[in-house]
């Protein structure tokens, strides 16, 4: 370092090979820093003759003991359960959670526009929502750790299920039962205009049919907005075909609930006349006797919280954590009627 050059936190972080936030925590003796990382930062500070100022450390991105959580929906059970698991881990570590609800396009645009000024957090966790290119750039301007939970977001550590694998469990179950004409109700999130239905779950349907040697009839695949009522409308469309399916695969349990209502109003028996399977294992799925593919939603939040703690401590983390799903067979699926 040339003489008379002022050494700052960024210089120490660069020399130690860590982020500025981690360097600040190490120098302020924060408990969530690995011993090896702390020693490396202290050695770098000594080499550079850096003297820490508590106020400067805070302004330069030091520890705030706060984590921002960005969520598109609060009332939906999936997001609430995910948040519950995440918050339980962060609370136990004495970290505060700042919740940012981006419920519509205007909220979302305003949040990401103002985001770089909100540097009073140590990390940002994005729950169950895709991050667009422009939004990704705004997140990275903060210079803090970013984690995704309940969905895969490239370039960031994430905790998620394998949607394609979950879809295969659902569709393969119907094929195993003997169904050969299988419909799909795909769902898009109204909060994500222009974003396609879950590509992994759609790909699973297409690949499962191809692997079983079954023809792909475009009329059997219906895409609607997420929710029970759109699911009911989608089932009406499928029943209106000259040759309706004998089984239906729904992208989510909520959509499947709506489809079940239409079937019952049409006087059709489940599963005698029509089988239906969903994904998620919604809290009401057992009462509805819905066969589904269960995903551990709360566990994903817990694991995401642990990833945040590891990053704040300067510990190595996996790029992504994929949690397993399992088929739960209930009373909504059976072999097709002969």
Automatic annotation (TrEMBL):
Residues 7-61 form the HTH lacI-type domain. One of its GO terms (molecular function) is DNA binding. Keywords: DNA-binding, Transcription, Transcription regulation. PROSITE patterns: HTH_LACI_1, HTH_LACI_2. Pfam families: LacI, Peripla_BP_3. Coiled coil: none annotated. The keyword Transcription regulation applies. The keyword Cytoplasm does not apply. CDD domains: HTH_LacI, PBP1_LacI_sugar_binding-like. This is LacI family DNA-binding transcriptional regulator. It comes from Paractinoplanes pyxinae.
């Amino acid at each position: 370092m040339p003489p008379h050059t002022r050494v700052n936190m960024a210089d120490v972080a660069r020399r130690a090979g860590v982020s500025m936030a981690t360097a600040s925590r190490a120098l302020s003796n924060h408990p969530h820093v690995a011993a090896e990382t702390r020693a490396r930062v202290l050695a770098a500070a000594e080499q550079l003759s850096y003297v820490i100022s508590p106020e400067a450390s805070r302004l330069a991105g030091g520890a705030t003991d706060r984590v921002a959580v960005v969520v598109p929906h609060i009332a939906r059970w999936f997001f609430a359960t995910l948040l519950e698991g995440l918050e339980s881990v962060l609370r136990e570590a004495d970290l505060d959670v700042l919740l940012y609800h981006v419920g519509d396009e205007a909220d979302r645009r305003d949040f990401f526009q103002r985001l770089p000024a909100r540097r009073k957090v140590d990390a940002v966790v994005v729950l169950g929502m895709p991050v667009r290119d422009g939004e990704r750039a705004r997140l990275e301007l903060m210079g803090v750790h970013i984690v995704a939970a309940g969905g895969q977001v490239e370039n960031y550590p994430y905790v998620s299920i394998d949607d394609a694998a979950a879809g295969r469990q659902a569709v393969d179950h119907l094929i195993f039962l003997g169904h050969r004409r299988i419909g799909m109700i795909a769902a898009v999130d109204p909060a994500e205009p222009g974003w396609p239905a879950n590509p992994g779950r759609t790909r699973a349907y297409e690949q499962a049919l191809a692997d079983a040697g079954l023809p792909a009839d475009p009329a059997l695949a219906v895409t609607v907005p997420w929710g029970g009522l759109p699911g009911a409308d989608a089932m009406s469309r499928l029943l209106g075909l000259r040759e309706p399916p004998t089984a239906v695969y729904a992208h989510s349990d909520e959509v499947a609930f709506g489809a079940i209502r239409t079937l019952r109003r049409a006087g059709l028996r489940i599963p005698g006349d029509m089988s239906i399977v969903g994904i998620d294992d919604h809290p009401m799925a057992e009462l509805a006797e819905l066969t589904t593919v269960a995903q551990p939603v709360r566990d994903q939040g817990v694991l995401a919280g642990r990833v945040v703690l590891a990053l704040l401590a300067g510990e190595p983390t996996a790029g992504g954590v994929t949690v397993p799903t399992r088929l739960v067979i209930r009373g909504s699926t059976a072999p097709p009627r002969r």
